[in-house]
Design a protein that fits this description.
The complex is a heterodimer of chains A (245) and B (450). Chain A has helices at 8-20, 25-28, 137-142, 193-198; strands spanning 2-6, 58-61, 82-87, 90-91, 112-113, 122-123, 128-130, 146-158, 164-176, 179-185, 188-192, 200-203, 210-219, 224-232, 235-242. With 245 residues, chain A is mainly β. In chain A, strand 13 and strand 14 form a beta hairpin. The longest helix of chain A has 13 residues, at 8-20. Chain B is an alpha+beta fold and 450 residues long. In chain B, helix 1 (6-18) crosses helix 2. In chain B, strand 4 and strand 5 (164-180) form a beta hairpin. Chain B has a six-stranded antiparallel beta sheet with strand order 3-2-1-4-5-6. The chains are: A mainly beta (245), B alpha+beta (450).
C-alpha cells in the first residue's frame, strides 16, 4: 500500500471506467446486466452517496469545446447539456435517456447516442471530466514524501458492478522525499471504487487539465463503439495497493 | 425476411470490380448478414431489433502498392466504383515491401450443417416465446436479463488470380444472467449453428439454479487456490492465449509469449489446443477473409507449442504459407484463430469437485485483460456463480474474486479435464469449443464486495 499519483492520461481511464460507466442509468436499471454488467449505484443514490473525497467534482458536459464527446443534440433529439455528476464528493446525477430518466424523476440529460444507422441509441458518456483544483503535477510530487507516480495507460479490467478495478500503466517512478527516483515498467494498481476516490487528497489545477478522447468505448448488444471525452488533471490517492502479481 | 444473394450473383458483382484495367490485382470481399436480437432485463424485453447489411471491400494492387475501399452495395457497378476508389488509394500510399500477393486458387471444402434456414428466418415472435420460456424458469423474487440472437451470414471472396469462394452460415445464441433474492446471480449461455442448439428451458434452469445457490456469498481471502473452471471460464484462458500467443503477427514480431519456442514444452503434457474452421462443430465460413481455405492448425500438442496461425502477409514474414486465418483488410492486427478447440479428458464436473479438498468453482470470468503479454498473464473478475468447494463438495457461494494469473502457468497445472466440450464465448472474442478444467494452483489477487 502506498501513495499513488496518476498523470492526466491515466486519470482519463480511471474516470472512464470507475465513474463514467457506473453512472449510466441503463446499467443501474439492469439493462446491460447480462453482458457489460450493472452498477454499484442504485436509482435512489442521488444526493446521498459519498462517491469520493471533498476534492472530487465530476461534470458531464457535451458542450465542452474540443471534446470527443461533444455534440449539438443527442440521438433522441435532446439538446446537449452540462450536468453535475459528483459535487464535492457527493453523487448527484446519472447519465440518462428519454426512456430511463423518468425512473429518477427527471427528463433526459441528453446522453442517448448510437454509433451508426443500424443501432439503437444507448446511454453513452459525453465528456465526463474531473474539475481541476490547484497546483501543478510537479508541486504534488514535491509534496509527497513516499509514493509512486504512474503514467500512460496500458491495461484495464473492472468488475461487473464497477467496484473492483485493476489498471496497468506503461511506466512509473518511485517518489522519495518529493523527487522521482527509480523507474519501473509495466506497473499496476488495484482498488475499490468509492474507497479509491475517497482517498483522493490532491487534484492538479487548470494548467495541467487536458481533454482526452476515448474513441473505442464498447457497450451494448449488438456491440457499439462510442466516442467520448474526459477532461483530467493529475491527482494523488493515498493507501493504494500497487504491483499486483 | 431477406435471403441469400448466392454465389452466382456474387460472381456477377465481383466481376464488376475484377474488370478494372491498369492494375496488377483486385480482390473483392463480400459480406451480407441479417439477423434479429431480443434483449431482456428485469424479466422484460427491452430491445428487439432486426438488421440487414450488405458490404464489399475491394483491395486493388498496383505494383507493390495496395489500396482498399469499402461500400454498402452489391452491384457490379458499385463494385467497379469501389475498385476505382481503391486504385486511387493505392496510387497515394507508400510501397509495401512485405506485400505477399493475393490468394492463389485453392479448393475450399464444403462443411455441412453450417446454414440453417429456420435460423435464418427466425422471427421476433419466436425469439420472444423462447425468452418467455426462459423467464418462466426464474424462481419467485428473481429476474432474468440476457439476449437471444439469431444471425445469417454469407461471405464470398473473389480475386484476379482466379480464386473464388462463397459460403453461408447461421448462428444462434442465448445468454442469460438470473439474479435476485437477497443477493446473487447465475449465468448460462449456449451457442450453436442453429436454433436446434437452443433450449431456453434448460438455460433458464441452469442460470436459476446458480442464482439460488449464490445467495449471501461470504468473503474468502485472496490467495492461490485449486479451481474448477466451467467451460465459459476455460474459454477466457484459451481466447486470451490466442491473443498473446497464437496470433501470427505478434509471433513473427517476437511479441508473443511463444515467440522462439516452437517445439518446446510450454504447458502441461495433457493440453492440446488447435484451430479448425473446417470442423462441423464450430461456426463460420471454411475460408478466411483473403479467400484462403482454413487449415487445421495444431497450436499446442501434448503441451508442446507447435506454431502460430498466419495470413498471407505474416506467412511471408515467417517463410511459410498462410493457414487461412486472415481478417478483413485493411487489417493492422494480423491473423487470428477464430475456431479454437481444446481437447477433452475423461472427468465430469462432479468428478473435479469431488477431487478438490478446498478450492473454488468458477462459472465464468468478466472483463479480463492482459497484464503482461510475454508472461501470458491476465487479470479479470469472476461473476455470476463463484462457489467454495470443501471436502469434495460445493458448500456455498463466495464473493467474486479478482484473478491475476499467467495462462501458461495455469495450463501447466491442469490435473483434470472435462469429458465434454462446449462452445463458449469470451467478451471480445469468438466462441471456442472447450471443456471444464481443474487447475491445481490459480492466483486470486483480490476480492470484490459482491
Amino acid at each position: 500500500m502506498t501513495t499513488l499519483i496518476l498523470d492526466s492520461g491515466q486519470m482519463e481511464l480511471q474516470i472512464h471506467e470507475s465513474i463514467g460507466h457506473p453512472i449510466e442509468l441503463d446499467r443501474v436499471l439492469g439493462m446491460e446486466e447480462a453482458y457489460a454488467g450493472s452498477s454499484w449505484l442504485s436509482p435512489g443514490d442521488r444526493g446521498t452517496v459519498r462517491y469520493a473525497s471533498d476534492l472530487v467534482s465530476i461534470t458531464a458536459d457535451a458542450t465542452l469545446p474540443g471534446g470527443r464527446g461533444t455534440f449539438g443534440y443527442d440521438d433522441e433529439g435532446v439538446p446537449a447539456q452540462s450536468t453535475p455528476i459528483i459535487v464535492d464528493g457527493i453523487f448527484q446525477n446519472f447519465l440518462t435517456s428519454r426512456e430511463t430518466a423518468h425512473v429518477v424523476g427527471q427528463t433526459s440529460n441528453a446522453t442517448s447516442r448510437a454509433d451508426g444507422w443500424s443501432h439503437l441509441p444507448l446511454i453513452r458518456m459525453t465528456n465526463i471530466s474531473i474539475e481541476p483544483r490547484q497546483g501543478s503535477l510537479s508541486e504534488i510530487i514535491a509534496d509527497t514524501d513516499d509514493g509512486i507516480f504512474m503514467t500512460t495507460n496500458s491495461s484495464w479490467s473492472i468488475d461487473d458492478k464497477r467496484i473492483n478495478f485493476q489498471f496497468g500503466c506503461e511506466a512509473a517512478w518511485k517518489i522519495e522525499h518529493g523527487k522521482l527516483t527509480t523507474m519501473y515498467k509495466n506497473p499496476n494498481y488495484t482498488g475499490i471504487t468509492p474507497e479509491f476516490w475517497g482517498s483522493c487528497d490532491a487534484v492538479a489545477g487548470r494548467e495541467e487539465w487536458v481533454v482526452w478522447g476515448t474513441p473505442n468505448c464498447g457497450k451494448g448488444q449488438p456491440g457499439q463503439v462510442g466516442r467520448v471525452g474526459h477532461g483530467a488533471s493529475p491527482a494523488r490517492f493515498r493507501n493504494v495497493q500497487v504491483g499486483v502479481r | 425476411m431477406p435471403g441469400l444473394i448466392g454465389p452466382d450473383r456474387f460472381r456477377e458483382v465481383a466481376a464488376g470490380a475484377l474488370e478494372l484495367s491498369g492494375v496488377d490485382g483486385v480482390e473483392v470481399l463480400f459480406m451480407h448478414d441479417w439477423g434479429g436480437l431480443t434483449r431482456f432485463a428485469k424479466s422484460e424485453i427491452h430491445q428487439s431489433i432486426f438488421r440487414e447489411d450488405t458490404g464489399i471491400r475491394v483491395r486493388v494492387v498496383t505494383g507493390d502498392r495496395v489500396g482498399v475501399a469499402a461500400a454498402n452495395v452489391a452491384t457490379p457497378e458499385g463494385a467497379l466504383k469501389a475498385a476505382r476508389s481503391a486504385k486511387e488509394m493505392a496510387e497515394v500510399v507508400g510501397p509495401d515491401a512485405m506485400w505477399p500477393g493475393l490468394a492463389p486458387v485453392a479448393d475450399v471444402p464444403e462443411v455441412p450443417g453450417r446454414y440453417d434456414e429456420t435460423t435464418a428466418d427466425s422471427s421476433p415472435e419466436a425469439r420472444a416465446d423462447a425468452v418467455a420460456t426462459l423467464i418462466g424458469m426464474c424462481p419467485s423474487g428473481f429476474t432474468a436479463a440476457g439476449a437471444f440472437e439469431t444471425q445469417a451470414i454469407e461471405i464470398g471472396v473473389a480475386n484476379s488470380r482466379g480464386q473464388f469462394c462463397w459460403a453461408p452460415s447461421t448462428q444462434a445464441s442465448l445468454t442469460t444472467v438470473i439474479s435476485g433474492g437477497e443477493s446473487g446471480s447465475g449465468f448460462a449461455e449456449v451457442f450453436g449453428a442453429g436454433l436446434g442448439a437452443i433450449d431456453p428451458e434448460a438455460i433458464g434452469r441452469r442460470a436459476a439454479d446458480k442464482a439460488e445457490r449464490s445467495q449471501r456469498p461470504r468473503a474468502l481471502e485472496a490467495g492461490v487456490y485449486p479451481v474448477v473452471l466451467e467451460p465459459a471460464a476455460t474459454a477466457t484462458l484459451v481466447a486470451f492465449l490466442s491473443y498473446v500467443g497464437f496470433a501470427g503477427r505478434a509471433y513473427v514480431e517476437d511479441r508473443s509469449c511463444f515467440s522462439g519456442k516452437a517445439g518446446e514444452t510450454v504447458v502441461g503434457t495433457n493440453i492440446d489446443i488447435w484451430d479448425d474452421g473446417g470442423d462441423p462443430s464450430t461456426l463460420g465460413a471454411p475460408f478466411d477473409f483473403e479467400g484462403v481455405p482454413k487449415q487445421r492448425a495444431s497450436l499446442i500438442e501434448g503441451g508442446v507449442f507447435r506454431d502460430a496461425v498466419y495470413d498471407l502477409r505474416t506467412a511471408k514474414q515467417a517463410g511459410t504459407t498462410s493457414t487461412g486465418h486472415g481478417l478483413p483488410s485493411p487489417n493492422p492486427e494480423g491473423p487470428f484463430p477464430l475456431n479454437l478447440f481444446m481437447a477433452t479428458g475423461d472427468a465430469s464436473l462432479d468428478d473435479m469437485v469431488a477431487a478438490t479438498e478446498r478450492g473454488v468453482l468458477v462459472t465464468r470470468f468478466h472483463y479480463s485483460n492482459v497484464v503482461n503479454p510475454m508472461e501470458s498473464s491476465i487479470t479479470g473478475m469472476t461473476r455470476d456463480g463463484t462457489f467454495l468447494i470443501e471436502g469434495g463438495e460445493v458448500v456455498g457461494p463466495v464473493r467474486n474474486f479478482r484473478f491475476t494469473q499467467s495462462i501458461v502457468e495455469a495450463l501447466s497445472h491442469v490435473s483434470m479435464i472435462g469429458r465434454e466440450a462446449e462452445l463458449a464465448s469470451e467478451f471480445f472474442f469468438s466462441a471456442s469449443r472447450v471443456p471444464a478444467l481443474k487447475v491445481e494452483a490459480f492466483n486470486f489477487s483480490g476480492v470484490s464486495d459482491h
